[in-house]
Amino acid sequence: MTFSDETLMAYLVGNLEEAEAGAIESAVEADPELEQRLMALDPFAPVVHGVFDQLPAAAPQIDLPDPLTAAPVPPAGSALRLLAVAASVAVVAVSATFWATRPAPMGWAQQAAIYQSLYAPDTIAVLDTSPEALDVQFAHAEERLGRSLNREALEALPGMELKRAQTLSFKGKPLVQVVFADAQGQPFAFCVIRQGEGAPNKDVNEAVLSGLATATWAQDGFGYMLIGSSDQTDLDGQLDILTTTFAG
């Protein structure tokens, strides 16, 4: 069975039905090439590999008494307890190394940027952009998000063609990714996450994440993010409209 990259991505973010997800898992067990494709598409695989690359190549050295100069040999039961303690120390040492060297947890904006960095013009060229498809997508996204996405304003963004509204999730919070194509067919994205009451407001912060120009801000319990197609993308035109449209 052949699986498209979009289907594999849907599997990675948990958007497939149980039967289809099971079919992919069964196929991966028997097809090393499919497993490599899946790993290449998984935005978190490099993070996992990075953690294990930082673990020490050899187990920590533990100084035990020299059997030739140590005190009289204890009973067999005591020796077993000593070995158990030594083994526990080794496990704790390896565990401490892992937790000390693991990367800091990524926030929603970083993970959204990683996901968006996998997009290419071909990814969005074949999307169904019919009014009927967009109606369904926006209705579902707004219901999950609990607020309007101001579709009319999004469709009117200068130089942008609206392609899709996709509902994702980050730590149980609904995260909506609205995808666009610019005049050259390059992918853009506008993301909204429901952070909940009490979440702090944040001014616009521009940064390069996963090789893409981004702008993030937060207001009234929602976080917002605009993602360009490269690290050199000028976001100012779209950003001015979006920060005004989603002012509250």
The strands making up the biggest β-sheet line up spatially as 1-2-3-6-5-4
- Terminus-to-terminus distance: 47 Å
CA-atom Rg in angstroms? 25 Å
Inertia-based shape: globular
Write the layout of secondary structure elements.
Blueprint: H1 5-12, H2 18-30, H3 32-41, H4 45-53, H5 76-101, H6 108-117, H7 121-125, H8 131-145, H9 151-155, E1 161-170, E2 173-181, E3 187-194, E4 202-209, E5 212-219, E6 222-227, H10 236-245
Antiparallel strand pairs: 1-2, 2-3, 3-6, 4-5, 5-6
Helix pairs in contact: 2-3
Using brief descriptors, characterize the structure shown.
248 residues; six-stranded antiparallel sheet; alpha+beta; single chain
